[in-house]
UniProtKB/TrEMBL annotation:
Belongs to the hyi family. GO terms for molecular function: isomerase activity. InterPro entries: HPT_OtnI_isomerases, HyI-like, Sugar_Epim/Isomerase, Xyl_isomerase-like_sf, Xyl_isomerase-like_TIM-brl. Gene3D superfamilies: Divalent-metal-dependent TIM barrel enzymes. It comes from the Bacteria. Pfam families: AP_endonuc_2. Residues 21-254 form the Xylose isomerase-like TIM barrel domain. Keywords: Isomerase. This is Hydroxypyruvate isomerase.
Length: 256
């Protein structure tokens, strides 16, 4: 049975970030994820997790300067030093929060650019090595280029090929159902074919990224498929609630 994690970057926006932990617990979640914890000291996050009995499911490595347009550093040869420093930062937060996996964003680059591809391979080897020594998995996530134009990793097949090529035991696929449907469709077959590579799943309705069950896919059927495949990892609820977060949780209560 998948375990659901509230994505505190997108959900519970009615509250300040540090108050979203309590709100998620109150709404029935036992786990949380978010994009970045770095605006807050690791101890502050750890305290919230502890106080509310929450498991940290996932967060991302620092992505560079998000406000200036960075969307990760891993495939950017000119930012290799910054990427190395970002691993140390993420691992400090990993230690404090007890998270079991971190997502590495590739950045904006072309996969046809040999230097970018080399930088990406090097970056993944490096982060998998450092994270693996602490028992953590590293995730890569194909992201659709309507939401993130120019994103390097915009193809599930390319992600699977890279994981196979690199052969790193703790490198896994972050299967975001929303991105998969926009990029390729064929969601159930994608889950079946890639099941052995999947280290984390996220869900949102397509195309508006609202609550599951409000878009073009039968999200309940997708979740049942995950269950049938024996997936017992986290499903991050990475959607923007159409209204108050709490009012839109009927889909979750219906599934659980
Ligand atoms: O956008 C997503 O789907 C993600 O999961 C990334 O972590 C951030 O863009
Ligand atoms: Mg995602």
């Amino acid at each position: 049975m998948p375990r659901f994690a509230a994505n505190l970057t997108m959900m519970f926006g009615e509250f300040d970030f540090l108050d979203r932990f309590a709100a998620a617990k109150h709404a029935g979640f036992d786990a949380v994820e978010y994009l970045f914890p770095y605006d807050y000291p690791p101890e502050a996050i750890a305290e919230k997790l502890h106080d509310h009995g929450l498991t940290q499911a996932l967060f991302n490595l620092p992505p560079g300067d998000w406000a200036a347009g960075d969307r990760g550093l891993a495939a950017l040869p000119a930012r290799a030093e910054e990427f190395r420093a970002s691993i140390d930062t993420a691992l400090r937060y990993a230690k404090a929060t007890g998270v079991g996996r971190v997502h590495v964003m590739s950045g904006l680059a072309s996969r046809q650019d040999a230097a970018a591809l080399d930088a990406y391979r090097d970056a993944l080897r490096r982060v998998c090595d450092a994270a693996g020594a602490r028992g953590l998995d590293v995730l890569i996530e194909p992201i659709n280029t309507r939401d993130m134009p120019g994103y390097f990793l915009d193809d599930f097949g390319a992600a699977a090929d890279l994981i196979a090529e690199l052969g790193l035991a703790n490198l896994k696929l972050q299967f975001d159902i929303y991105h998969r449907q926009i990029l390729h469709g064929d969601v159930l077959m994608g889950l079946r074919e890639l099941a052995s590579l999947i280290g984390h799943v996220q869900i949102a309705a397509v195309p508006d990224r609202h609550e599951p069950g409000t878009g073009e896919l039968d999200d309940m059927r997708v979740l049942r498929e995950l269950d049938a495949l024996g997936y017992d990892g986290f499903v991050g609820c990475e959607y923007r609630p159409a209204g108050r977060t709490e009012d839109g949780l009927g889909w979750l209560r219906a599934f659980a």
